[in-house]
Amino acid sequence: MSQRRQLNLNLFIYPGGHHEAAWRYKGSAASRALDISYYQQLARTAEHYTFDAIFFADGPALADNVRYAQRFRFEPITWLSAIAAATSRIGLIGTASTTYHEPYNLARLYASLDHLSGGRAGWNIVTTSAPQAAQNFGLPEHPDHHERYERAKEFLDVVTALWDSWEDDAVVNDPASGIFADTDKVHPLNHVGKHFRVRGPLNVPRSPQGRPVYVQAGSSEDGRAFAARFAEAIFTAHQTLASAQEFYADIKRQARALDRNPDHVKILPGISPFIGSTQAEADRLQEEFNDLIQPEYSLVQLRQMLGLDLSGFDLDGPFPRHLIETDGARGVASRFKLVVDIVDREKPTIRQLIQRLAGARGHWVIAGPPEKIADNIQTWFENGAADGFNVMPPWLPGGFDLFAEHVVPILRKRGLFREEYSGKTLREHYGLERPASLYSHQVQAIA
Amino acid sequence: MSQRRQLNLNLFIYPGGHHEAAWRYKGSAASRALDISYYQQLARTAEHYTFDAIFFADGPALADNVRYAQRFRFEPITWLSAIAAATSRIGLIGTASTTYHEPYNLARLYASLDHLSGGRAGWNIVTTSAPQAAQNFGLPEHPDHHERYERAKEFLDVVTALWDSWEDDAVVNDPASGIFADTDKVHPLNHVGKHFRVRGPLNVPRSPQGRPVYVQAGSSEDGRAFAARFAEAIFTAHQTLASAQEFYADIKRQARALDRNPDHVKILPGISPFIGSTQAEADRLQEEFNDLIQPEYSLVQLRQMLGLDLSGFDLDGPFPRHLIETDGARGVASRFKLVVDIVDREKPTIRQLIQRLAGARGHWVIAGPPEKIADNIQTWFENGAADGFNVMPPWLPGGFDLFAEHVVPILRKRGLFREEYSGKTLREHYGLERPASLYSHQVQAIA
Questions:
Q1: What are the protein's UniProt keywords (chains A, B) (predicted)?
Q2: Architecture of domain A8-279+364-430 in CATH?
């Protein structure tokens, strides 16, 4: 009997949780936000519940609204390396920017993480949308969206070739003969492109997964095309089933058109669940969080999403929809349309919009008892909207504990989620093949 | 009664050990060279013997002679992050290049390592001498020595300001008031220099040590001046007491001239000990290693040190001293003079020179019983040649076990090395003060 199709579940970790006021909630671990043991413990809980992976976002600039929330950012690859040492099976996905890294350095960081974790590394590929990052890297201005994606494509070609530059059997490691590496199987790239000139080979032998898992989160036209071509898992934000279905169908179609197996492109929307034993209790919990919102913080978030500064406006007045069209402003591409759709659908006041977005920066927020959460997950999963989810607990660790203890057992009972790991690597958890090296059928000597 | 001045001891880790044929020796852990648990175990042994730190070298290019030895390079910061999670007191020093990193990225990596290790990070600052690195980073050629040091100086100014950009009390983290950061104490740099334009602030709060420990290894004129100005610990290679004394006196003098406390510049020569219960046994052990040397490998090493290709020459003929002068070739600046001095002093054949350098790439190799090793350490320590040592076992783990089990107890009995840790951070192990933030007396708002 063939096994039922299985959900993939990741735990997306923000210091205090994903609601923008999470760190102020009495149950959050605000005081431990700088402490690696807190993150190691979260990862161990997720591993205990057989999650596919944990996930860290990233950006190389300080958020403007750090005054009002825990918006610092540890460097994810160091953090994941320390978490790797405290876990044994769970995948480790870190975000890093193709705009603000050199491919040789990035390839080494992730190859090393893949080695030290025994094949559990994933790279969430971003081009960085925060314009202030440019000023930390000597650029006169942040490169535009199209240019960033163009660089990203070449970047991917280069790091892929670097990860493949040692064939799997290049390491001989034979003390008797004195041969460590069969250098006929260690290949220079000699890449010469518009953005990069990289000779190679990498100075790290091929890693357990061959290549770390390629994760991506773009939602713009360029972002979708990039994801369909390169991504093996896609994180995406949707407020409605219909929106998620449209995205799902589009990506799978584009992947098919590129001769890729669409099952090897996992689509994982974000979900931020407020869980109570009754609907009323879950709603009250969500209200408790919304009461902790600081509008000074939220307006900066909104400015980043829309490119529109609403400070000074009456929070309880209507959202000034006309300003979006007249300004033609654009913020983060993956969020702009989503927020405008909410405005058009729900006609909120500014305060209502802020609350709507406070839960998880535009991701799907749902409140209810565990059965309802599980039902919704199953509906999206079985109706062409998701292959799994990026779970974004409103607060941590308690908000995740509720999901793990009450929702996961329901999903397991329904046969939708594993009872135990069958594989050891992140590729195995996701059902992805281990890629052969690009060079595996060439004969070419190292210079 | 004041305590006697104490040695600082680091364990310098190369996969199979420091002798170039170490990985071929029957006692080396050649088969575990790609396994993080092997390195975690080495670090735990060093911690058990209260060593100050472990140390990893690095370079962003594949060595030309990887065919004949384990000359791959894991990325040290990921590696150290995973080791941090398996240890609690030992310092963690990783090498990274100022020529091939962006300061914002590097500052985050080390600040994160310092956070996750509870204040145990050290950065060995190098400018990278291997010319092939340039070709992995799109540079038409490797920048010359002077230019690399010029960039390094500005790089240091930038990362220092980034590490200081959050004052120590900038993190308020008060859920009740909703203030996470006192942004009057989070400072942009607005650095504009010849090589870098960096706005800042860093997106990581100030780390436990304030700044990771600054380690350096330059021996050229530029390198010494740089070390005297910035370094808190210096790794250095000397074949003789006289050479080490000259270096020690020069650095301390230069530090004093810059108004630095010379005690806060620890000078740590490399030492590679072959230990036997008798002199004859130690000598036989060293011969056993020399019998495993592969000249194909050694000649590449020599070419890198001297810029001179001797393949094709009779290994048992005299070293062609005249070629150095006529070619005027230069390899790695910190080794060139050292090797030429050996040639002039000992008039070796090529094979003899290769054996002389095979032990630890030009570092001090000494063979003998434990008492003799301890005597020599004490002589250097008490005669103005060293504040401690970078211990470079010929092979691992056995070569280190011998040192730890037989030499450390003698040093302790003589009151020269700690019986237990008195501090928790690497700065505390080295007796270095925790630096105040550059910004700690300014009042300046985040823009």
A1: Flavoprotein, FMN, Monooxygenase, Oxidoreductase
A2: Alpha-Beta Barrel (3.20)
